[in-house]
Amino acid sequence: MNAYDMARTTYAATTAPVRTDRDTEYDAFARITRQMKRAASKPGDFPLLAKALHDNRRLWNILAADIASEGNALPAHLRAQILYLAEFTAVQSRRVLNHDAAIDVLIDINTAIMRGLRNQETVA
Predict the structure, then answer these.
(1) Burial status of residue 47 (CB atoms within 10 A of its CB: 0-12, 13-18, 19 or more)
(2) Of the ranges 74-78, 112-116, 118-122, which one carries the lowest mean pLDDT score?
(3) Total structural domains in the chain?
(4) Which of 17, 26, 59, 62 is the most exposed place for a label (fewest CB within 10 A)?
(5) 106, 93 contact by CB (below 8 A)
(6) Alpha helices of the chain — where are they, by DSSP H?
(7) Boundaries of domain holding 106
């Protein structure tokens, strides 16, 4: 190993890049939305559908608990909207599992949230 290699490895970044809460939330929504899209593309795979919906409901339950916490700094109207979406997600998930509704609206909601987290008009 020469001096250049030693300097590069010594002074190279040893930590992962800093991630914001928005990045973490976006990644969670992206992962779960991909699961739901996969489940939508395989209509006969009920276990895949059930897992995607379960994971999505868990995410929304976490968000609902977070907005209910005393230290949450979001404006009250935004917290109310998120709580409404969490409730809607729970009801719609049951309807999808009972074959009374399509998963598309849940995918659309998550995609809209992802747009908001990225402050952009389209999500790749």
Answers:
(1) exposed
(2) 118-122
(3) 1
(4) 17
(5) yes
(6) 3-11, 21-41, 46-68, 76-97, 104-118
(7) 21-118
State the greatest distance between any 2 C-alpha atoms of the chain, in Å, as a whole number: 67
Total-model pTM:
0.79
Return the SS3 of 69.
Answer: coil
Model confidence pLDDT, tens digit, residues 46-75 = 999 999 999 999 999 999 999 999 889 999
Residue type, 82: I
At 107, which amino acid appears? I
User: Within a domain: residue 6?
Assistant: no
- For residue 25, what are its two tokens? 């939330």
Assigned domain for 53 exists: yes
